[in-house]
Automatic annotation (TrEMBL):
The active site is at D36, D176. This is Ribulose-phosphate 3-epimerase. Pathway: Carbohydrate degradation. Keywords: Carbohydrate metabolism, Isomerase, Metal-binding. A divalent metal cation binds at H34, D36, H67, D176. NCBIfam families: PRK05581.1-4, rpe. It is an enzyme of class 5 (isomerase). It catalyses: D-ribulose 5-phosphate = D-xylulose 5-phosphate. The keyword Cell membrane does not apply. Its EC number is 5.1.3.1. The lineage of its organism: Bacteria, Pseudomonadati, Bacteroidota, Cytophagia, Cytophagales. The keyword Isomerase applies.
Protein backbone atom coordinates (compact mmCIF):
# COMPACT_ATOMS: atom_id res chain seq x y z
CA UNK A 1 0.00 0.00 0.00
CA UNK A 2 1.18 3.54 -0.79
CA UNK A 3 2.22 5.59 2.19
CA UNK A 4 -0.24 8.35 3.14
CA UNK A 5 0.32 12.03 2.54
CA UNK A 6 0.78 13.58 6.00
CA UNK A 7 -0.43 17.15 6.41
CA UNK A 8 0.12 18.54 9.91
CA UNK A 9 -2.27 21.37 10.74
CA UNK A 10 -0.39 24.52 11.68
CA UNK A 11 -3.47 25.59 13.69
CA UNK A 12 -2.11 23.62 16.63
CA UNK A 13 1.37 25.17 16.39
CA UNK A 14 2.86 27.78 18.72
CA UNK A 15 1.95 30.98 16.84
CA UNK A 16 4.57 32.96 18.76
CA UNK A 17 7.22 30.69 17.23
CA UNK A 18 5.71 30.11 13.82
CA UNK A 19 8.99 30.19 11.91
CA UNK A 20 10.50 27.48 14.13
CA UNK A 21 7.36 25.39 13.82
CA UNK A 22 7.48 25.63 10.01
CA UNK A 23 11.18 24.77 10.04
CA UNK A 24 10.40 21.72 12.17
CA UNK A 25 7.87 20.63 9.53
CA UNK A 26 10.43 21.28 6.77
CA UNK A 27 12.80 18.82 8.46
CA UNK A 28 10.10 16.26 9.18
CA UNK A 29 8.39 13.57 7.12
CA UNK A 30 5.40 15.87 6.61
CA UNK A 31 4.36 16.08 2.96
CA UNK A 32 2.10 19.14 3.10
CA UNK A 33 1.32 21.85 5.63
CA UNK A 34 -2.40 22.15 6.35
CA UNK A 35 -3.51 25.76 6.86
CA UNK A 36 -6.91 26.26 8.56
CA UNK A 37 -8.68 29.52 7.77
CA UNK A 38 -11.76 30.36 9.88
CA UNK A 39 -13.92 33.44 9.44
CA UNK A 40 -16.13 33.43 12.55
CA UNK A 41 -19.21 33.18 10.30
CA UNK A 42 -19.10 29.83 8.53
CA UNK A 43 -17.53 28.39 11.67
CA UNK A 44 -17.79 29.71 15.25
CA UNK A 45 -14.11 30.59 15.52
CA UNK A 46 -11.53 32.88 13.90
CA UNK A 47 -8.02 31.62 13.17
CA UNK A 48 -5.79 33.77 10.95
CA UNK A 49 -5.77 34.99 7.38
CA UNK A 50 -3.78 35.97 4.33
CA UNK A 51 -0.69 37.73 5.83
CA UNK A 52 -0.03 34.84 8.23
CA UNK A 53 -0.45 32.32 5.40
CA UNK A 54 2.10 34.31 3.39
CA UNK A 55 4.48 34.36 6.35
CA UNK A 56 4.20 30.57 6.64
CA UNK A 57 4.75 30.22 2.91
CA UNK A 58 7.91 32.34 3.08
CA UNK A 59 9.56 29.69 5.28
CA UNK A 60 7.80 26.52 4.11
CA UNK A 61 9.56 23.99 1.89
CA UNK A 62 6.38 21.90 1.64
CA UNK A 63 3.19 22.69 -0.26
CA UNK A 64 0.52 24.63 1.63
CA UNK A 65 -2.85 22.90 1.76
CA UNK A 66 -5.29 25.70 2.53
CA UNK A 67 -8.65 24.77 4.09
CA UNK A 68 -11.09 27.64 3.78
CA UNK A 69 -13.77 27.45 6.47
CA UNK A 70 -15.27 30.70 5.26
CA UNK A 71 -18.35 32.11 3.56
CA UNK A 72 -17.95 33.42 0.00
CA UNK A 73 -14.58 31.74 -0.60
CA UNK A 74 -14.60 32.99 -4.21
CA UNK A 75 -13.70 36.45 -2.89
CA UNK A 76 -10.49 35.18 -1.27
CA UNK A 77 -9.25 32.25 -3.34
CA UNK A 78 -6.93 34.36 -5.48
CA UNK A 79 -5.43 36.09 -2.44
CA UNK A 80 -4.66 32.72 -0.83
CA UNK A 81 -3.13 31.51 -4.08
CA UNK A 82 -0.89 34.60 -4.12
CA UNK A 83 -0.06 33.96 -0.45
CA UNK A 84 1.38 30.59 -1.45
CA UNK A 85 -1.41 27.98 -1.49
CA UNK A 86 -0.73 24.85 -3.55
CA UNK A 87 -4.15 23.39 -2.87
CA UNK A 88 -7.31 25.16 -1.78
CA UNK A 89 -10.38 23.47 -0.31
CA UNK A 90 -13.73 25.21 -0.07
CA UNK A 91 -16.71 23.91 1.92
CA UNK A 92 -19.58 22.29 0.07
CA UNK A 93 -21.94 23.91 2.59
CA UNK A 94 -20.63 27.40 1.74
CA UNK A 95 -20.77 27.03 -2.06
CA UNK A 96 -24.09 27.15 -3.93
CA UNK A 97 -22.02 27.33 -7.14
CA UNK A 98 -19.48 24.69 -6.29
CA UNK A 99 -18.60 23.79 -9.88
CA UNK A 100 -17.69 27.42 -10.55
CA UNK A 101 -15.63 27.61 -7.34
CA UNK A 102 -13.65 24.54 -8.39
CA UNK A 103 -12.92 25.95 -11.84
CA UNK A 104 -11.76 29.21 -10.27
CA UNK A 105 -9.25 27.34 -8.11
CA UNK A 106 -8.03 25.19 -11.01
CA UNK A 107 -7.67 28.19 -13.31
CA UNK A 108 -5.14 29.58 -10.82
CA UNK A 109 -3.13 26.35 -11.12
CA UNK A 110 -3.98 25.08 -7.63
CA UNK A 111 -5.31 21.67 -6.69
CA UNK A 112 -9.04 22.06 -6.05
CA UNK A 113 -10.55 20.57 -2.90
CA UNK A 114 -14.01 20.29 -1.40
CA UNK A 115 -14.45 19.87 2.34
CA UNK A 116 -17.66 18.41 3.71
CA UNK A 117 -19.05 18.58 7.23
CA UNK A 118 -19.79 15.39 9.17
CA UNK A 119 -23.53 15.54 8.34
CA UNK A 120 -23.03 16.07 4.59
CA UNK A 121 -23.53 12.96 2.47
CA UNK A 122 -20.65 12.05 0.17
CA UNK A 123 -23.12 11.28 -2.64
CA UNK A 124 -23.72 15.00 -3.07
CA UNK A 125 -20.28 15.17 -4.71
CA UNK A 126 -21.01 12.54 -7.35
CA UNK A 127 -21.77 14.97 -10.18
CA UNK A 128 -18.57 16.98 -9.71
CA UNK A 129 -16.21 14.22 -8.67
CA UNK A 130 -14.12 14.56 -11.85
CA UNK A 131 -13.56 18.23 -11.03
CA UNK A 132 -12.30 17.57 -7.50
CA UNK A 133 -8.63 16.83 -6.77
CA UNK A 134 -9.17 16.40 -3.03
CA UNK A 135 -12.23 15.65 -0.93
CA UNK A 136 -11.60 16.72 2.64
CA UNK A 137 -13.85 14.64 4.87
CA UNK A 138 -14.34 16.45 8.15
CA UNK A 139 -14.10 13.95 10.96
CA UNK A 140 -15.02 16.65 13.51
CA UNK A 141 -17.29 19.67 13.21
CA UNK A 142 -15.04 22.36 11.74
CA UNK A 143 -14.00 25.30 13.88
CA UNK A 144 -11.66 23.93 16.50
CA UNK A 145 -8.63 21.70 16.82
CA UNK A 146 -8.39 19.03 19.47
CA UNK A 147 -11.87 17.53 19.07
CA UNK A 148 -12.88 13.87 19.23
CA UNK A 149 -12.85 11.88 15.99
CA UNK A 150 -16.34 10.97 14.69
CA UNK A 151 -16.45 7.19 14.09
CA UNK A 152 -18.97 7.39 11.20
CA UNK A 153 -16.11 8.78 9.10
CA UNK A 154 -14.94 5.24 8.22
CA UNK A 155 -18.26 4.54 6.47
CA UNK A 156 -18.00 7.80 4.56
CA UNK A 157 -14.46 7.01 3.38
CA UNK A 158 -15.62 3.66 1.98
CA UNK A 159 -18.65 5.22 0.27
CA UNK A 160 -16.54 7.98 -1.24
CA UNK A 161 -13.88 5.52 -2.38
CA UNK A 162 -16.58 3.66 -4.29
CA UNK A 163 -17.91 6.81 -5.93
CA UNK A 164 -14.38 7.75 -7.04
CA UNK A 165 -13.65 4.24 -8.37
CA UNK A 166 -16.99 3.97 -10.20
CA UNK A 167 -16.33 7.30 -11.90
CA UNK A 168 -12.75 6.40 -12.76
CA UNK A 169 -11.69 9.65 -11.09
CA UNK A 170 -8.34 10.39 -9.45
CA UNK A 171 -9.67 12.28 -6.44
CA UNK A 172 -7.71 11.95 -3.19
CA UNK A 173 -9.48 11.48 0.14
CA UNK A 174 -8.26 13.65 3.01
CA UNK A 175 -9.31 13.16 6.64
CA UNK A 176 -9.40 16.22 8.88
CA UNK A 177 -10.06 16.22 12.62
CA UNK A 178 -9.09 14.04 15.56
CA UNK A 179 -6.63 11.94 13.56
CA UNK A 180 -4.11 10.01 15.64
CA UNK A 181 -1.97 6.89 15.62
CA UNK A 182 -4.97 4.80 16.76
CA UNK A 183 -7.41 5.63 13.93
CA UNK A 184 -4.89 6.24 11.13
CA UNK A 185 -4.50 2.57 10.11
CA UNK A 186 -8.25 2.01 9.86
CA UNK A 187 -8.68 5.22 7.86
CA UNK A 188 -6.03 4.14 5.36
CA UNK A 189 -7.55 0.66 5.11
CA UNK A 190 -10.91 2.28 4.33
CA UNK A 191 -9.28 4.22 1.47
CA UNK A 192 -7.98 7.52 2.85
CA UNK A 193 -4.95 9.07 1.10
CA UNK A 194 -4.18 12.18 3.16
CA UNK A 195 -4.15 12.52 6.95
CA UNK A 196 -4.38 15.94 8.58
CA UNK A 197 -3.26 16.03 12.20
CA UNK A 198 -3.06 19.09 14.43
CA UNK A 199 -3.03 18.45 18.17
CA UNK A 200 -1.72 14.92 17.85
CA UNK A 201 1.44 16.27 16.20
CA UNK A 202 2.02 19.62 17.88
CA UNK A 203 0.99 18.65 21.43
CA UNK A 204 3.23 15.57 21.40
CA UNK A 205 6.62 15.65 23.09
CA UNK A 206 8.30 14.73 19.80
CA UNK A 207 6.35 16.24 16.87
CA UNK A 208 8.83 15.03 14.23
CA UNK A 209 8.73 11.49 15.59
CA UNK A 210 4.92 11.64 15.71
CA UNK A 211 4.81 12.66 12.04
CA UNK A 212 7.13 9.79 11.11
CA UNK A 213 4.89 7.45 13.10
CA UNK A 214 1.83 8.54 11.11
CA UNK A 215 3.70 8.24 7.81
CA UNK A 216 4.68 4.64 8.57
CA UNK A 217 1.52 3.62 10.40
C1 LIG B 1 -10.83 21.84 12.28
C2 LIG B 1 -9.65 21.97 11.34
C3 LIG B 1 -8.67 20.86 11.48
C4 LIG B 1 -8.04 20.80 12.82
C5 LIG B 1 -7.36 19.51 13.03
O1 LIG B 1 -11.73 22.87 12.04
O2 LIG B 1 -10.08 21.98 10.01
O3 LIG B 1 -7.69 20.92 10.47
O4 LIG B 1 -7.13 21.83 13.04
O5 LIG B 1 -6.88 19.50 14.32
P1 LIG B 1 -6.89 18.21 15.22
O6 LIG B 1 -6.00 17.21 14.56
O7 LIG B 1 -6.40 18.71 16.52
O8 LIG B 1 -8.32 17.71 15.27
ZN1 LIG C 1 -8.57 21.69 8.34
Amino acid sequence: MDKPIIAPSILAADFANLQQEVEMLNESDADWIHVDIMDGIFVPNISFGIPVTEAISNHAKKPLDVHLMIEKPENYVEAFYKAGAASISVHYEACPHLHRNLQQIKDLGCKAGVAINPHTNVQLLEDVIHDIDIVCLMSVNPGFGGQKFIENTYVKVRQLKEIIADAGAHTLIEIDGGVNQQNARQLLDAGANILVAGSFVFKSSDPKGTITGLKNV
